[in-house]
Write a structure and sequence with these properties.
- The protein has 13 helices and 12 strands.
- With 331 residues, it is of the alpha/beta class.
- Helices cover 33% and strands 15% of the residues.
């Protein structure tokens, strides 16, 4: 019997990859082997997904915010890394095209390709999925629908999930995690407000842990002050998952750790800028409280930097609202 290797592609950020988890499990339940094509910002998340047997990293020039040039050498690097897969499922967001990757996979000899495409795909796709983009379907469900269209029916409830993370380095469980960093300034609550929230949470008797990446150590130190444990730059993605698993709640913007918290079952206070729809990217499958003006003038602009002076959609959120939201989630 010929082994059925299926390539699943989501060459995007960590949060997008985590949201692809239910679709990956659906594919994995029906395939012999799943190879996941990730970008550099999503590789660590892809390695946490149950059902993934191998991860390939390649930076897609039409996806990444800081795209590499399109060169023969760069494309050859992908071609050399791709497995001999008979089938591929390309996962995208509503503002992305699956067709450039579909063309490369065709040239590599992939026989059956499924993806969403509003544009006419010609012979690039075997299963063309069309969706009503006026409906803000959650990203996890959107991608699960693509897997189902390819014939990979779901075999579980479709929640986010990762492989079990290591133990948290802080404790005891029940602390609040505050993650002030975001990939885009338009999605960020001001550092001063984060610090106020940390102080207010501590005043309410909560133990607080502040997290962030290696490039955010100055930010996390400022936010933590003398009121919280500062883990800025000290955790890998699996270690951060362990920290989040033992938290009673996470306070974060629309960023990867919010989806990581959902994958370990932790409620989220979501400081959500409306530059993208919350209906698509709010924390999935866990209790959450959405803070921020979702009808602000920056709504649906997909801006990286806020186009409105003063960033009013998020600066209007107060530390008191965050403390109240945490209380609602842990009742």
């Amino acid at each position: 019997m010929v082994s059925r290797t299926v390539l699943v592609a989501r060459p995007d950020s960590a949060g997008d990859v985590l949201l692809a988890g239910p679709a990956v499990r659906a594919v994995g339940a029906h395939a012999d082997r799943v190879v996941f094509l990730a970008g550099p910002r999503g590789r660590a998340a892809a390695e946490l997904l149950p059902g993934v047997d191998r991860v390939i990293e390649w930076q897609a020039p039409w996806i990444d915010a800081d795209p590499p040039p399109v060169t023969g050498e760069h494309v050859t690097r992908l071609m050399d890394a791709l497995p001999d897969a008979g089938e591929a499922v390309i996962l995208t967001s509503f503002h992305q095209s699956a067709l450039p990757l579909a063309l490369l996979l065709r040239l590599r000899g992939v026989g059956r390709i499924t993806a969403i495409s509003e544009d006419y795909p010609g012979s690039l796709l075997d299963v063309r999925v069309r969706v009503d983009e006026t409906r803000h379907l959650p990203e996890a469900e959107r991608m699960l629908a693509v897997a189902a269209a390819a014939g990979f029916e779901p075999v579980d409830g479709g929640a986010l999930a990762i492989t079990p993370p290591p133990p948290s380095p802080v404790g005891p469980p029940g602390y609040v995690v505050v993650h002030p960093g975001t990939a885009a300034p338009a999605r960020a609550w001001p550092p001063s407000r984060h610090r106020e929230a940390v102080e207010a949470l501590a005043d309410e008797g909560f133990a607080v842990v502040v997290t962030g990446g290696p490039g955010e150590r100055a930010l996390t130190a400022r936010v933590a002050g003398g009121h919280a444990v500062d883990l800025g730059g000290l955790t890998s993605l699996p270690e951060l998952a362990g920290v989040l698993r033992d938290a009673c709640a996470l306070v974060a913007g629309n960023t990867g750790p919010a989806h990581l918290a959902a994958a370990v079952g932790t409620p989220v206070v979501s400081l959500f800028s409306p530059v993208v729809p919350a209906g698509r990217w709010a924390p999935y499958g866990v209790p959450y409280v959405l803070l921020g003006d979702q009808e602000g003038p920056c709504k649906d602009t997909r801006a990286q930097t806020c186009p409105i002076k003063g960033h009013p959609c998020l600066t209007g959120v107060t530390a008191e609202q965050v403390v109240k939201a945490v209380g609602e989630l842990i009742r």
